[in-house]
UniProtKB/TrEMBL annotation:
The name this protein goes by in its record: Peptidase M15C domain-containing protein
Domain Peptidase M15C: start-end pairs: 100-173
UniProt cross-references to InterPro entries, sorted A to Z: Peptidase_M15C (IPR039561), Zn_M74/Hedgehog-like (IPR009045)
Short name of any one Pfam family annotated for the protein: Peptidase_M15_4
Taxonomic lineage from the root: Bacteria, Bacillati, Actinomycetota, Actinomycetes, Propionibacteriales
Organism: Nocardioides aromaticivorans
Length: 193
């Protein structure tokens, strides 16, 4: 992580983060073991939601720690562009918002989860990331465009809010029990990934 997804100046120290290793079903129906890093205050919520997806047979394309994708100079953190293009599910990444240099991403705090990023693109100021084919499509198991989708319902039941709807369908924010959502300056009226 050091020098990629975590670096000096991050608002969350490494002691405030946890490594989550969890089973998931891939798109071919094989059981895999994935890893992601999340804030200690919400890692149980994320683990519960991902375990519920596993029990429901809802697939995840891939789940690797985001530092696997290298450093991004333009994001000043791990390369989220490469992670999204790989369809990777991830959480903590001390970086800037995609397309907004100098603005910290909600992922910087370890309380945001991006899920099945290839099928659930993000609308940045430069256009759809990582692809423009999926935004108008849904899939009953892997791509959601409404609050009634099974994945959105599972996340909501575990305290992960689907915050941005169809312009950032991959993104969920975890609110710890009795806690408050992370407020990111400059992100109140715009989508911040």
């Amino acid at each position: 992580m050091v020098g990629r997804s975590w670096h000096r100046g991050c608002p969350v120290g490494r002691s405030g983060l946890r490594l989550l290793r969890i089973n998931y079903w891939d798109y071919a129906g094989y059981r895999r073991r994935g890893e992601l890093v999340a804030a200690a205050s919400v890692v149980r919520q994320m683990a519960g939601a991902l375990a519920d997806m596993y029990r429901a047979g809802l697939p995840i394309r891939s789940m690797y720690r985001v530092d696997r994708f290298g450093w991004s100079k333009r994001l000043q953190g791990a390369d989220d562009y490469r992670s999204m293009a790989a369809g990777n599910t991830s959480a903590f990444n001390c970086r800037w918002v995609v397309g907004r240099p100098g603005v910290r991403s909600p992922h910087t705090y370890g309380r945001a989860l991006d899920l099945n990023t290839w099928e659930n693109p993000y609308l940045s100021r430069q256009g759809w990331e990582p692809n423009s084919w999926w935004p108008s499509r849904s899939h009953p198991r892997a791509a959601w465009r409404s609050r009634s989708h099974a994945v959105v319902a599972i996340m909501r039941a575990r305290g992960l809010r689907w915050t941005y709807g169809t312009s950032d369908s991959q993104h969920f924010d975890a609110v710890p029990p009795g806690g408050r959502p992370v407020v990111v300056p400059g992100c109140a009226d715009v989508v911040c990934h």
